[in-house]
Amino acid sequence: MRAATARGAIVAALAACGALASSLVANAQTPPSGCTSIAGVPPIYSGIEFGAAIEGIFTNYNGMGNGCADCHTTNGGSTMPTGELDLDPADTPSPYVNLLGMNRDGVDSPLYAGYVYVVPNHPEQSLLFMKVDCDNPGAGARMPLNNYMGGLSVQQIALIYDWIAEGAPAGTTDGIFRNGFDIRGFNQ
Ligand code: HEC
Predict the structure, then answer these.
(1) Helix, strand, coil in percent for the chain, rounding step 5
(2) What is the residue with the minimal CA distance to atom 2 of ligand 1?
(3) Distance in angstroms (rounded) separating the CA atoms of residues 80 and 82
(4) In this structure, are residues 166 and 139 in contact, taking their beta carbons and an 8 Å threshold?
(5) CA–CA separation, 42 vs 5, rounded Å?
């Protein structure tokens, strides 16, 4: 019974891959280059908690209280978050809704035509991952901008990859999706 359910999930995931692969061909993305290899970081399939792990990067990636939300926020008198994307958990809507939409149906970047912030199960198609992994994401600069306050570690970049690869849940990843057939980042 369990095995049949797991097989069903894998078949559904593979079918979704096919549909998304053809949609990627249809838009006009520039292939990213200058990307940090995450191949040496062991994948984490289960137990990545969006609030603690991913929002933790947004608010404090260097252990000294600096994060993406230092710029990507509507707090501090700014009326529009830098880059149009609010990643501050103190703001409404939440970073999760800003990245995935109310119904997890994707949010288009208002800055870069053809780019979606997060495509669940497809970090390689997600602007969020391209921006933190590559010097030339094809859409503006690598994030955090100018390596702000030390930038991200390769483990933090891999964590964002693994969270998206596992379906980008609002709660905690459960290990169902990528285990065993993970492409692990860009080849560049
Ligand atoms: C020092 C300020 C600063 C910090 C820190 C920063 N960003 Fe940005 N971000 C920007 C600016 C400016 C832009 C718009 C220019 C660009 O895309 O290169 C931007 C754009 C983006 C975009 C594209 C937004 C859009 O609407 O398409 C994403 C995604 C992004 N940043 C993610 C992040 C993440 C994730 C972090 C933390 C790891 C981060 N940023 C940290 C300044 C910052």
Answers:
(1) 40, 10, 50
(2) 71
(3) 6
(4) no
(5) 26
For 39-55, the pLDDT digits (tens) are 999 999 999 999 999 99
Is position 121 within any domain?
yes
Q: Answer yes or no: is 180 within a domain.
A: no
Neighbours of 185 (CB within 10 A): 21
Q: Report the phi/psi class of residue 42: left, alpha or beta, with left for phi > 0 and alpha for psi in -120 to 50.
A: beta
**Containing domain of residue 23, as a range?**
2-174
Count how many domains the chain has: 1
CA gap 103, 161 in Å, rounded: 21
pTM score of the predicted model = 0.86
Residue to probe by mutation, ligand 1, list 30, 71, 129, 152, most atoms within 8 Å of CB: 71
Is-contact 106 100, C-beta < 8 A? yes
Distance CA 158, CA 123 (A): 10
